[in-house]
Design a protein that fits this description.
Shape: globular
Radius of gyration: 16 Å
Number of helices: 5
Structural class: mainly alpha
Oligomer: single chain
Number of domains: 2
Order of helices and strands: HHHHH
Strand content: under 5%
Helix content: 55-70%
Length: 82
């Protein structure tokens, strides 16, 4: 998704120090890069994004969303799923 200025994928090992510096500067507790995915998923689901749209954009299957993020899904989606 993100690339370096020369167009190659960002290598997490080299980016990590910059990431932690930015978190510290913003007063955000230390967390890994992977936490950004969970934040995006839960925020989108709480905002009511359509599940089909979300599946297409992220490649995350509905079954996975339901299993890992079900409590953030709108109530009507949970009811239809049963």
């Amino acid at each position: 998704m993100f690339t370096a200025t020369i167009g190659t994928p960002i290598e997490p090992k080299t980016f990590r120090a910059h990431w932690y510096d930015r978190l510290r500067a913003l007063g955000i507790r230390r967390r890994g890069l992977y936490a950004t995915k969970d934040t995006f998923v839960t925020t989108a689901l709480e905002a009511g994004v359509e599940i089909a749209w979300f599946e297409q954009r992220t490649g995350v299957a509905y079954a996975t969303l339901r299993c890992h993020y079900g409590k953030w899904m709108p109530a009507e989606v949970r009811v239809l799923d049963k």
